[in-house]
Structures are given as C-alpha cells and as structure tokens.
Amino acid sequence: MGSAHINADPGAFADTVLLPGDPCRAQHIASTLLDDAVEVTDVRNMLGFTGGWRGMRVSVMGTGMGIPSMLIYATELARHHGVRRFVRLGTCGAIAPELDLGSIVVAIGAGTDSRVNRIRFRDYDFPATASWPLLERLMRTARERKQAVNVGNVFSSDHFYHPDPELRKTLARLGFLAIEMETAGLYGMAGELGIQALAVLAVSDKFDRPGGMSTEQRETGLDDMTRLVLDAMAADE
Ligand code: HPA
C-alpha cells in the first residue's frame, strides 16, 4: 500500500532519502553507488530506490523540477513513508562570480519568489533554513576530505526562464550564491513537519558562459558530491 504518488510498501524507504530532481539520477546513484539497491516506487517513472552505503540504509528518489513537484514527493515520503531526513542533491545556476561549473553550494538558507511558505505561515516571512545537524555533518565530512564547499544563501525560483532581467544582479548584490528551484519549499516543509532537510547543489550553469553542463554531466557528473553527502549521512555522530 502506498500514497497517492508513491507505490512503495510500508517500510520500503529508509529514514534518510537523497532527493535529486531527475529520476534518472536517482537510478544512476542506486545502480552505481549504493549496495544492493532495489526499486521501491515507479509511479509516473518518478523512480525511488533503497540500498546501502557503508552500513547505513538509505533511499534515493527523483522529485521532478520545481517546488510543487518536489513537495508532492517529499511530503508523502515524510507523512506516509516514515522519512525523517532529506538531502536535496540538485543543480543550480551560479550567481556568485567565484563559482565554477561543478562547484558545490550548500544552502544554509533559501529566499524565494514562490508563495508556498507564506501560504504555510499566515503570509509572514518564513526563515527557510537548513537543519543544523545535517549541515554540521556535511561540513565536518567536507573538512575531513578537504573538499571545498561554498556555504550561503540560494534563491529558489518558480521560473527557470525568469521574466525579470534584473533579478540576477539583485541576487548578486544581496550575496546569494546561486539560483535553483526547490530548496525554499523543502526547508519550509521540513519546518512544518518537524523533520530535517539540507540542500547540496552542484553548479550546472554559469550565466556568463552559455552551455553549462551537458545532460550526461548533469546525470552522472555529480557522483563526487553524492559520495560526500552519503559519507556525511553515514558518519558517526
Ligand atoms: N536557474 C534555475 N534553476 C536552475 C538553474 C538555473 O539557471 N540551473 C540549474 N537549476
């Protein structure tokens, strides 16, 4: 028995779920990185898998693009499938000039042009922030591996093709590192449901350099970042 958009058996998901946008990336992570991964859901081809990493049971599932799609899956995972920790494994467009293709961005907080958190919070401004225990784990593991990560704010937009030509300049002036489409919604949901969430993003687009990562790079080129996240989640407290 599953939920509306996830046809997994009870207990099929681990406590910790990695959330790439692309279900093909979920399949790639399951088949190339996880031990003994099994497919646990396939509704609309939004594939989810559960397997192992260094003795930890862990799941990985695609979310689709944008806050509404991601929130359908993450909310059902938390409400109906027992999930307590989410790490979004995404891509983003660089706003800070020092970021290069492949740079890792860890979202300590997320601004947004979406109204989802205002709808949750009586039209007040919700502080969409990462969960400290996950952020701390990630940073400890990154330091141990001497892995450079960029920690700061991201902007989660409902528009990939944003109609405001000045937006990127404004985001740069206010110190945002990157733009993407899901994190503020994930952090708001985690706040409401009392669970943990973190977004770790690879820069896939540089606006001063048309082209960005190829589809294949987007799908498979994120393995280092995924290993960092898996090691962080599996590390002892
Ligand atoms: N904009 C919004 N979201 C994104 C981008 C972008 O350029 N690149 C990857 N996700």
What are the salient characteristics of this protein?
33% helix; Rossmann fold; binds hypoxanthine; 8 helices; 5-stranded mixed beta barrel; globular; alpha/beta; 237 residues
How many beta strands in the DSSP annotation?
Answer: 9
CATH topology (level 3) name = Rossmann fold
What is the molecular shape? globular
The CATH homologous superfamily name equals Nucleoside phosphorylase domain
Number of helices: 8
Distance between the termini: 34 Å
What is the CATH architecture annotation? 3-Layer(aba) Sandwich
The succession of helices and strands, N to C, reads EHEEEHEEHHEHEHEHH
Beta fraction of the residues?
25-35%
Residue share in helix: 25-40%
**At the first level of CATH, what is the class?**
Alpha Beta
Low-pLDDT runs: none
- Give every kind of bound small molecule, once each: hypoxanthine
The biggest beta sheet is recorded as:
5 strands, mixed, barrel
Which strand order spans the largest sheet, edge to edge or round the barrel? Answer: 5-8-7-6-9
On the 0-100 scale, what is the average pLDDT? 96
Based on CA atoms alone, the radius of gyration comes out at 17 Å
